[in-house]
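Blinded run. Sample ID left blank on purpose so nobody reads anything into the name before looking at the predicted structure. Input follows.
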Amino acid sequence: MDSPLKEDNFMPSPFPGMDPFLEDPAVFPDVHDSLIAYLRETLNAVLPAPYYAGIASRIWVEPSHRRIGPDVKILHPTHPANGGVKSGAGAGGVAVAEATAAGPVAIEVEVEEQRETFLEIYAEPGGRRVVTTIEVLSPANKTPGGHGRTPYLQKQREVLQSQVHLVEIDLLRGGVHTTAVPVGAAVARLGFFDYHVCVHRWDRSNVYYVYPIQLQGRLPVVTTPLLPDDPPVAFDLKAVLDRAYDAGRCRQWVPYRAPVPAPPLHPNQAIWVEQD
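Blinded prediction complete.
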């Protein structure tokens, strides 16, 4: 493998498959949206009429991570509310708290609108019918309790209960298992894998077609289903990633001199990444 430190802005990633440095939270959003755009381009070049691929999105809001004020942690006064004066005439009297009726206080929290794109394949005759949904999972989708996980899982359930195929591309080692295939069944059948693609056909509801991907391995050519009477089409996920990497000049700005983003690599993987 070539060293990832070469100063060539327009070369593909030095990794034969997924580039683990692209998993950096500051990098992956750019990669995610580029993958969606170039997947659309790739599929529209091979989809027969009347099919076509289009970009769709879902939106949610979450509290802003921007610092908007001082970090105040003291939530009670350091002195009694009555100024420290004890009730009664004697010094040994017992302090009495005065009950005060108070109205509500409005606390406004800054929020940010988050937008996440995905791909849909449509069949036009007879109306714009969604045939296949293609998702590239994001860190927000794989974070327990995250605001982006709930709408993703809701959409996943809706697709699985409909007559729409679902293709999920997980190029993130971190986070919890999120694709539709049950994690226990996947690990039992496939063993350990770093990344994977899960394809679920609505007309074979109990079957999941999983492409297991090792860090050292090449990204697969993924077969994408269409309507039952039509043959599927395929896209080369590695070629799509290379195009996104080149177009985004990733070699120029991805932080290759920093440690590989979490989670930690296995020892043999760490050696492989560091070798020239």
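Unblinding after everyone has recorded impressions. Confidence is low (pLDDT under 50) at residues 1-9, 66-76, 84-89.
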